[in-house]
């Protein structure tokens, strides 16, 4: 029964061996495609934020919470501000950071391998001054000569911007006594009266901004020439702080304030994984997409207002929204399928031609078990044909023995039933050669001397 079964069963082993080269090629192509598309992003990312109680710091916490929902840990790296963040990005110390517009230019960003994920919000230049009884209010920046003003720490965005603004007003370096304290201690110094003013560049959500706007004796400088500043420095925009926006009941502020504002941009190294770019841009849309003091609903995040080239993945999001698969699947699964389409294309290109190669290889492998014995059979025939006359009988006898050995081995060959015709044909050919040798042996047998011819 087992002998019958071995001839009727389909040879999975032979099929696998025949298909092995194709399988190995497909696996190699899949592995190469997987490596090229890099579908799985890292689970940790470093985000450079800003000073304590700054808008950058507060927004950094929101980004960390948003990405944590997708299993990505955001390590917040505090800094002095935009300038220091830019240096850390260039040095590779962080992966992504908040950077103020005007901090760099397109050529420098491309040279340093930086890319923008979009502008997030405007961060006005806030100049808070102490009100002094008996002195007229300060309406021109030229009136700051001789005063003690905190520009902010080295590495922040405000010092560089404020110097540019003062230069436009003809205020030379040294005419204003400069302090370089961090925002929180500078606020304490201002409230204690040890300095005359301080400068921030921040979104209004920053706790220190909210507090100073409501502190008696502290006056916000009104940039009445804001439109002119925006024309002189193209990375600035003219924004208005509306009357009563801080507290309608107490009418704070009591008038509209004109402010000049760069934009805060999310800047990343150009080797940041595309999937993380998607996550950060989606988080930005959630965090900054609403209406604010200086922006309309949906105005931010945006691919505009940034001098740094926008990342291709981010630009795709601003044009078409989130990827289709992410609207119906978890982020990780959607990202994997979305990025592995290269593998699908590669498989489609390989499987069709290889599917035409495997069947002939399978047939050849099965039939070769029979055909290789024909070589042995031909060797037997050749030995018989070339046998010398003086030892012809000995050669015939040896070849009969060899033929019997071949037949025994052929009888042990196992092939599927659909190929049994070849095996039976071989057996009949072995029998044919045997009869031929026996015939030749009969012809070559010596005739006895006493034989009487009939």
TrEMBL record:
<feature type="transmembrane region" description="Helical">
    <location>
        <begin position="340"/>
        <end position="364"/>
    </location>
</feature>
<dbReference type="Pfam" id="PF16868">
    <property type="entry name" value="NMT1_3"/>
</dbReference>
<dbReference type="InterPro" id="IPR011852">
    <property type="entry name" value="TRAP_TAXI"/>
</dbReference>
<keyword id="KW-0812">Transmembrane</keyword>
<protein>
    <submittedName>
        <fullName>ABC transporter substrate-binding protein</fullName>
    </submittedName>
</protein>
<keyword id="KW-1133">Transmembrane helix</keyword>
<keyword id="KW-0472">Membrane</keyword>
<feature type="transmembrane region" description="Helical">
    <location>
        <begin position="12"/>
        <end position="37"/>
    </location>
</feature>
């Amino acid at each position: 029964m087992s002998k019958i079964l071995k001839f009727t069963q389909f040879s999975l082993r032979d099929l696998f061996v025949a298909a092995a080269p194709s399988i190995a090629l497909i696996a190699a192509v899949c592995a190469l495609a997987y490596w090229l598309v890099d579908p799985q992003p890292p689970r940790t990312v470093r985000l450079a934020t800003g000073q304590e109680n700054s808008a950058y710091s507060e927004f950094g916490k929101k980004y960390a919470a948003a990405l944590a929902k997708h299993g990505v840990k955001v390590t917040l790296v505090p800094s002095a501000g935009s300038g220091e963040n830019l240096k850390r990005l260039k040095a590779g110390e962080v992966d992504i950071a908040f950077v103020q517009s005007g901090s760099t230019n397109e050529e420098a960003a491309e040279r340093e391998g930086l890319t923008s994920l979009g502008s997030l919000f405007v961060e006005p230049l806030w100049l808070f001054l102490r009100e002094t009884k008996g002195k007229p209010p300060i309406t021109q920046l030229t009136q700051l000569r001789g005063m003690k003003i905190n520009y902010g720490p080295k590495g922040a965005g405000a010092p560089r911007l404020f110097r540019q603004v003062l230069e436009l007003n003809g205020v030379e370096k040294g005419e204003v006594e400069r302090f370089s304290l961090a925002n929180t201690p500078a606020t304490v110094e201002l409230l204690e009266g040890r300095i005359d003013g301080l400068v921030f560049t921040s979104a209004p959500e920053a706790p220190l901004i909210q507090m100073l706007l409501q502190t008696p004796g502290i006056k916000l400088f009104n940039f009445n020439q804001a439109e002119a500043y925006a024309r002189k420095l193209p990375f600035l925009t003219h924004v208005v702080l509306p009357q009563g926006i801080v507290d309608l009941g107490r009418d704070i502020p009591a008038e509209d304030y004109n402010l000049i504002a760069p934009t805060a941009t999310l800047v990343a190294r150009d080797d940041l994984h595309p999937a993380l770019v998607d996550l950060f841009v989606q988080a930005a849309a959630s965090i900054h997409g609403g209406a604010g003091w200086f922006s309309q609903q949906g105005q931010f995040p945006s691919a505009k207002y940034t001098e740094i080239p926008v990342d291709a993945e981010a630009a795709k999001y601003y044009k078409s929204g989130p990827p289709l698969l992410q609207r119906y699947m978890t982020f990780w699964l959607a990202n994997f399928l979305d990025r592995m389409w290269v593998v699908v294309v590669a498989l489609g290109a390989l499987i069709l031609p290889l599917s035409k190669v495997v069947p002939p290889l399978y047939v050849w492998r099965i039939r070769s078990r029979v055909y290789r014995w024909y070589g042995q059979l031909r060797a037997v025939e050749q030995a018989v044909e070339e046998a010398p006359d003086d030892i012809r009988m000995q050669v015939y006898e040896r070849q009969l023995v060899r033929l019997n050995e071949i037949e025994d081995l052929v009888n042990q060959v196992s092939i599927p039933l659909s190929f049994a015709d070849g095996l039976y044909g071989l057996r009949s050919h072995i029998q044919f050669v045997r009869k031929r040798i026996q015939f030749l042996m009969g012809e070559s047998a010596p005739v006895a001397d006493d034989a009487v011819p009939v």
